[in-house]
Amino acid sequence: MGLQNRAVQSESAAPPHFAMLQMITGFWVSRAIYVAAKLGVADLVKDSPKTADELARLTGTHASSLYRVLRALVGVGVFAGSEQGRFAQTPLSEILRSDTPGSLRAMAMAELGQEHFPAWGNLMHSVKTGEIAFDNLFKQSVWEYYARNPEDARNFNESMRGLSEMINAAVIKAYDFSGVDKIVDVAGGTGGLISAILGAHPRMRGVLFDLPHVIAEAGPLLDAAGVRARCATAAGDFFESVPEGCDVYAMKWIIHDWDDEKATSILKNIHRAMNEKGKLLLIEMIVPEGDQSDLSKLMDLEMMVMTGGRERTEAEFNSLLADSGFEFTRVIRTASPLFVIEAVRA
Predict the structure, then answer these.
(1) In whole angstroms, what is the distance from residue 215 CA to residue 233 CA?
(2) Does 256 participate in catalysis according to the annotation?
(3) What band does 5 get if pLDDT is binned at 50, 70 and 90?
(4) Beta strands 279-284 and 248-252: pairing type?
(5) CA 167 to CA 98: how far, in whole Å?
(6) pLDDT tens readout for residues 81-100
(7) If you average pLDDT over every residue of the chain, what do you get?
(8) Collapsed DSSP state (helix, strand, coil) of residue 324
């Protein structure tokens, strides 16, 4: 955060032309980070600094070219350099290690690799037509792409898992789950959120619900978390139905994937399935009113490019829930970019 603040202060103090140049060339840094993440450089310098020649031998790359990439990343603080030409770990590169809790290595590879990055290059198509940039470029939806490309799907799921560790802890700390007997994690991926919730509440039972190819990958995480005996798995399509008769239906970073029509269809299916006194928890970003900078406004563009969904204001969530048969009850801030939006049957 300190580095980011210094960067913002530096940009704000720079002449407008230089500040704009930094913004325009920002993807240069992103792509260099992708190369380092894909090659696993942070893992390789975990125990001791290494030269570009050593790293090139370990990664099967061109030493001089790799050196130039790493030199640039030293300049923005991702790695540390030395007079001996060795590259070492920093707090930022630690986050790119594959064995670090909350690692963003998979996120860097997913966002900056062969799916999201090319789709962002097609952003103008979305702006001109209102259509999904990814679908236009790849001739299929991102969900169809992942179903057909299991290795990329696993990396995407891993990227969500790394980011989710921080968010899950923040949600559990912010929301009182005591008194909940049974919870469903709708479109819960490989089980990160529900594992964290069940781990914090030993008497609670759960159901992890997602598409068949996603559920097929969930067993190891549930086993590692020690919650497999209390967490059933169910495969299906939430546009058709969701598991019935539970106390709480949670969805984390799911509704933002869909436009209002499709989001309403999902929420109505949950409304039909839930107990009369059940609760719905949407764990999402909320776009603030006003002109201030906020990550949600950039994430909104990611949704436009990749899924056709959107980030929403509190008023837009209220309207969406009302149209789906719910009463918006409260919003709970977490120590993450996401909020817990609670609703009950109207």
Answers:
(1) 7
(2) yes
(3) very low
(4) parallel
(5) 18
(6) 987 899 999 999 999 999 99
(7) 93
(8) coil
Residue with tokens 């790493």: 70
Residue among 116, 125, 201, 256 flagged as catalytic: 256
Residue pair 185/193 in contact by the 8 Å Cβ criterion: yes
Cα(165)–Cα(172) distance, integer angstroms: 11
Name all domains of the chain by residue range, CATH numbers in brackets.
Answer: 2-100 (1.10.10.10), 164-289+307-345 (3.40.50.150)
For residue 90, what are the CA distances in angstroms to 41, 49, 73, 76, 326? 12, 11, 11, 11, 47
Query: Long-range contact list for 21-29, CB < 8 A, 24+ apart?
Result: 28/72, 29/72, 29/73, 29/76
- Please classify residue 22 by burial: count the beta carbons closer than 10 Å to its beta carbon, then call 0-12 exposed, 13-18 middle and 19+ buried: middle
Residue 264 has pLDDT above 90, yes or no: yes
Angle between helices 260-273 and 314-323 (to 10 degrees): 60
Assigned token pair, 215:
């559920």
pTM value is 0.87
